[in-house]
Amino acid sequence: MKLIAIGIATLLINLGGGASWGAEEIPPAPEPSFSLEQREMRAQLNPKRYTTISSELGAKISRIAVKDGERFHAGQNLVQFDCTLQRAQLAKAQSQLRLARNTLEGNQRLQRLNAVGEVELRNSEAEVQKARADIDYLQAMLEKCSIAAPFSGRVAEQKAREQQFIQPGQPLLEILDDSSLELEIMAPSRWLNWFKPGYLFQVRIDDTGKTYPVKLLRLGAKVDPVTQSIKAVAVINGHFPELIAGMSGNILIRPPQK
To answer: Where are the domains of the chain?
Structure first.
């Protein structure tokens, strides 16, 4: 029994020593190396331009020419308001201007006869200027009774309905220009020696399951010192009707071969 115990103890000592020796000889696992060829980034398709059309006056909507998803061209009338009240006010202001002019002309004739005071003449001139200002204001308001499209594109969302009375500043339509779709990515700043406008790469869109060509459009003006990255904007290089704003996918960046 003693011989067996001694043998077991010797075996354990040898094993322990072997384990210790092995731990000393086995080098630590190397840190995983970063490969530019395997660099993948998420990106979302954004419209070239987008905005929210709002009202500049309080009035009732008489007509909305486009609905959700419909296309329009630059300069097309999108929204028309009922401006009957503003037109009536303009007609009243024009009548007041004619009255003020008659009064001024009469006072000017009386002044030549020294039959009117200087103050009364100046007041009649001021009434003419006031009437003209009222007309200019109302004409400017009437120009806002219709809203034209600032660019060609599509309606993303209709936020108001016909016959609805709206207040100044109330959103009416969300519109976007999808003539070219852009992608915004954050690229490592160490890529700047080769990642320049015009560089070609690809994006795989999840929604379609297809891969599309992409061209780098522009780089940001500064590098983020914390993340050591720079904003980059790319554009889908070509026209693909199935792509719409909001779709997303993976971008695979492949550096030039040395």
So the answer is: 36-81+146-252, 84-143
d(CA 238, CA 5): 81
H/E run at residue 130: helix 118-143
Q: Reduced to 3 states, what is the DSSP secondary structure of residue 133?
A: helix
Which tens digit of pLDDT belongs to each residue from 226-239? 989 999 999 998 88
**How far is the C-alpha of 103 from the C-alpha of 126, rounded, in Å?**
11
Tokens 């690229």 found at? 187
User: Assign residue 182 a region: left if phi > 0, alpha if psi is -120 to 50, beta otherwise?
Assistant: beta
First-to-final CA distance of the chain: 71
- Classify domain 84-143 by CATH number: 1.10.287
Four-point Cα dihedral 60, 63, 67, 71, nearest 10? -130
Q: Where are the beta strands (DSSP E) in 109-241?
A: 146-148, 153-158, 165-166, 171-188, 200-205, 210-224, 229-236
Which CATH code for domain 36-81+146-252? 2.40.50.100
Please state, in angstroms and rounded to a whole number, the distance separating the CA atoms of residues 130 and 116: 21
Query: Which H, E and C letters describe 5-51, residue by residue?
Result: HHHHHHHHHHHHHHHHHHHHHCCCCCCCCCCHHHCEEEEEEEEEEEE
**pLDDT tens digits for range 181-230:** 999 888 888 889 999 999 999 999 999 999 999 999 999 999 999 989 99
Q: Is the pTM of this model over 0.85?
A: no
Tokens of 95: 């009548």
Cβ pair 50, 156 in contact under 8 A: yes
